[in-house]
Amino acid sequence: MIVLRHLLVRYLRPYRWLLVGVLVFQFASALAMLYLPSLNANIVDRGVAQGDTGYIWRTGGIMLAVSLGQIVTAIIATRYAAQASMAAGRDLRDDVYERVSGFSEREISQFGAGSLITRNTNDVQQVQMIAMMGSTMLVTAPLMAIGGIIMALRQDVRLSWIIAVAVPILLVFAGLIIGRMVPLFRSYQLRLDTINRIMREQLTGVRVVRAFVRESIEAARYRAANTDMLVVGRKVGSLFVLMFPGAMFILNVTIMAVLWFGGHEVDTGRVQIGTLLAFMQYVGQILMGVLMATFMTIMIPRAAVSAERIGEVLDVESTLTEPANPVGVLPTPGSVEFADVTFRYPGAQHPILSNLSFTVEPGQTVAVVGSTGAGKTTLLSLVARLIDTSSGAVKVGGVDVRDLELETLWANLGLVPQRPFLFAGTVGSNLRLGREDATDDEIWQALEIAQASDFVRDMKGGLDARISQGGTNVSGGQRQRLAIARAVLRRAPILLLDDSFSALDVATDARLRAALWRELPQVTKVVVAQRVTTVTDADAICVLDDGRLVGMGTHEQLLASNQTYREIAESQIDVEARA
User: Fold this and answer.
1) Using CA atoms, how far apart are residues 517 and 514, in angstroms rounded to an integer?
2) Nearest to 131 by CA among 33, 12, 256
3) Which of 486, 376, 495, 491 lies closest to 421 in space, CA to CA?
């Protein structure tokens, strides 16, 4: 609840004048609603009872004007409330997106992509809704309840005991319902996270699902999560179903009591018919005000749960923070140094990298090889500062990456990740992510280096050919080559290639490496590779084994002196010979 209040105050503050307008017009609307029953009573008691047609017309005209005014003020108040709440929701989504964009891999893994999407959509929507409903009902509900009580007492004090009984009963009933809803809302949001996660996994891994004929199993898994959410949703729905009929039952019983006891008052002549009708309307307004407040309190628990989930994201400080005094200039551009680096993933028993030390000089080509799980991808992530070291230092350009301005660091790197990702758009728009101001000629040159120009020319539209989300309309090898072209186009002093040739045939692999080495001799290249043939012409090869550097040298030197590298090379040669 505290988090909800904090978010509402923070994000509605810039729109306080809109909220002032909401309060003013809602106040006018509520006053008009309170004034109408009194006018109605006057028409019945004076105009109808005395046959004063002129009075009926005059008072009826006033009632019509007041009604029109009430409608106009309510519309204006609702419009202002919608503007303020929608703008607050926009700002909140922007802040969540900006915070998530700055997360390292550690924070992304902590929440999960599906949960982060839910928090920035459904959860923000719940907070946005409570902001709108709260601002529209903030004045109306208490004015209708409190003002209705005052006006009802002016009409007939003797019947006020009915209100004193009905209102507490309605409040107790609402409190019991709301108390059961709070944990259900929290459970419902967690299950919504699960639904989004499973759906995202199945859409992303649809090829794997089909390849292993897992459609029925995955459908059953989704169905189970959906059913789990349905069970919780039914419980929430049953409480909602119980809430409103119960409230209307209390309201109707109250009206019946007013008619019963008020009828006796009219029969004895102590109360006029118009006064009784006005009293009934005020009782209805009182209970409707309480019901509106109750409706708000039903929405508050769900919004509070959503606010807590949003607050968890906003409160997490990314480990990728700008240093207090960032360095913006690199003394030795293109150099990479690992100084006694150790890295351990959160919760892991053993470090993935241990006491790693080596240096890559500007313009060198250094390969990193090792068995699966040796820490090769983690090594490149440390260079790009997607994660930070547990101990030791990674230096780029002679400066610890933790002391570098993030924009300066990333401007000096061109990264091709292990799983290259293409965005929905065109070939040109994807490559221009590397450098926005690149010309078409520069893009074609990068495609030539990446051995991708031929298939791009064959695509309908060339650089304007459509690319689907994730690059699913091109093959794995084509996706890798487009990602390499994007990194080449960046013209960064350091190029990081994380197993970026794995989907290429041997001939294409050889041509691509030859073009890279030939066209980019001044660029430092750090290459993670599984195939030994990919790294034989590197200036130096780092051999990792269980997170430790067990050898470094050229291909020939390592074959002669390093047992681990020799085993890797011989195993691949045997496999190729058998093939």
Assistant:
1) 5
2) 12
3) 486
Q: Are residues 64 and 145 in the same domain?
A: yes
Sign of CA dihedral 165, 170, 175, 177: positive
On whether the CB atoms of residues 362 and 511 are closer than 8 A, the answer is no
Whether the CB-CB separation of 463 and 428 falls below 8 Å is answered with yes
Check whether residue 189 and residue 249 sit in a common domain. yes
Task: Check residue 5 and report its DSSP letter.
Answer: H
Per-residue pLDDT 10s for the chain (579 aa) are 678 888 888 888 888 899 888 888 888 888 888 777 777 777 766 656 566 677 778 878 888 888 898 899 989 998 999 999 999 999 999 999 988 888 877 788 778 777 888 888 888 998 998 888 888 877 788 888 888 888 777 777 777 788 888 888 888 887 788 778 778 877 887 888 788 888 878 877 777 888 888 888 888 989 999 999 899 888 888 887 887 788 788 888 888 888 888 887 777 777 777 777 777 788 888 877 877 777 777 777 778 888 888 988 888 887 777 788 888 888 888 999 999 999 988 777 888 999 999 999 999 999 999 888 888 889 998 998 888 888 999 999 999 998 988 888 888 999 998 888 888 899 999 999 888 888 999 999 999 999 999 999 998 888 999 998 778 888 888 899 999 999 999 889 999 998 888 888 888 888 988 898 888 889 999 999 887 877 888 899 999 988 899 999 988 888 888 888 888 888 776 544 444
**pTM of structure:** 0.69
**Burial class of 307 by CB neighbour count within 10 A (0 to 12, 13 to 18, 19+):** buried
307 with 345, same domain: the answer is: no
> How many domains are there within the chain?
3
* Tokens of residue 556, six digits: 């020939």
57, 61, 62, 68 alpha-carbon torsion, rounded to 10°: 160
CATH (domain of 181): 1.20.1560.10
Residue span of the structural domain in which 57 resides: 2-315
Of the candidates 545, 488, 228, 507, the residue with the CA atom closest to the CA atom of residue 370 = 545
Residues 81 and 214 in one domain: yes
Domain boundary among 287, 315, 343: 315
Structural contact between residues 97 and 120, judged by C-beta atoms closer than 8 angstroms: yes
Q: Domain of 451: which CATH number? A: 3.40.50.300
Domain assignment of residue 328, yes or no? no
The answer for residues whose C-beta is within 8 angstroms of residue 275's C-beta and 6 or more apart is 41, 45, 155, 156
